[in-house]
Amino acid sequence: MVDSADYIGAWLPFAKHTRAVEDTLAFIDTTLRSFAAGSEVNAGIWYQDKLVGTIGLHINRSNQSASIGYWIGQAYEGRGIMTRSCRALITYAFGELALHRIEIRANMGNTRSRAIPERLGFQQEGIIREAFKLDDEFNDSVVYGLLDREWPR
Ligand SMILES: CC(C)(COP(=O)(O)OP(=O)(O)OC[C@H]1O[C@@H](n2cnc3c(N)ncnc32)[C@H](O)[C@@H]1OP(=O)(O)O)[C@@H](O)C(=O)NCCC(=O)NCCS
């Protein structure tokens, strides 16, 4: 997603610094190791035979909880691809992984990102003050939570 790197980087600073093939290979290597260790599930999002984004589940086994992170190429926004991807990952997390709780944190000003947990029935649980540093400014994060029993099956 090199062509969306600046756009994604406006919310996820790592995107500004990961443009080379080596960066992608290192990311794949790290995520495969985390998957083998049971601490993460990362997936590419494919749309019409193109890799358009990624989604990841960061797992805390002791608490049977996880958080979800995501990004998609700018050209593929607005089609519900990420909402559908989250739905699939959540179903997997509560089903296969038997997790109890899933969290999504988004920057207060990131309306598109916040719309996803809101659309999927997460509860807004709180605001973490000045938790995320973006362009030398500390931004508030909004925490959304969803429990296993709240997920429609
Ligand atoms: C956050 C991000 C993934 C949201 O992407 P998105 O395309 O808006 O999200 P969705 O795939 O859920 O699409 C929702 C849009 O598709 C529309 N849509 C179409 N079909 C839909 C469907 N079947 N289900 C849900 N929404 C659908 C919705 O109405 C909504 O449209 P709107 O933008 O006009 O309101 C994207 O903006 C992004 O990658 N941003 C940069 C990185 C980032 O901020 N990551 C998150 C950090 S916390």
Task: Give me some keywords for this one.
binds coenzyme A; single chain; Aminopeptidase; 4 helices; alpha+beta; 6-stranded mixed sheet; 153 residues
Tell me about this structure.
- The protein is of the alpha+beta class and 153 residues long.
- The protein is 29% helix and 37% strand.
- The chain has one domain (2-150): 3-Layer(aba) Sandwich (Aminopeptidase), CATH 3.40.630.
- The protein has helices spanning 5-9, 21-37, 81-94, 111-119, and strands at residues 40-47, 50-60, 65-72, 101-107, 123-134, 137-147.
- Strand 1 (40-47) and strand 2 (50-60) form a beta hairpin.
- Bound molecules: coenzyme A.
- Coenzyme A is lined by residues 8, 11-12, 70-72, 77-83, 106, 110, 112-113, 116.
Secondary-structure-based class equals alpha+beta
Biggest β-sheet, characterized? 6 strands, mixed
Q: Going by CATH, what is the homologous superfamily?
A: Gcn5-related N-acetyltransferase (GNAT)
Work out the strand percent: 35-45%
N to C succession of SSEs:
HHEEEHEHEE
Oligomer type:
single chain
Strand order within the widest beta sheet: 1-2-3-4-6-5
Instruction: Compute the number of strand runs.
Output: 6
User: What are the segments in which pLDDT stays under 50 over at least 5 consecutive residues?
Assistant: none
Under CATH, the topology can be stated as Aminopeptidase
Instruction: Give the overall shape, derived from the CA principal axes.
Output: globular
Q: What Rg, in angstroms, do the CA atoms define?
A: 15 Å
* SS summary, helix count: 4
Number of domains: 1
CATH architecture title: 3-Layer(aba) Sandwich
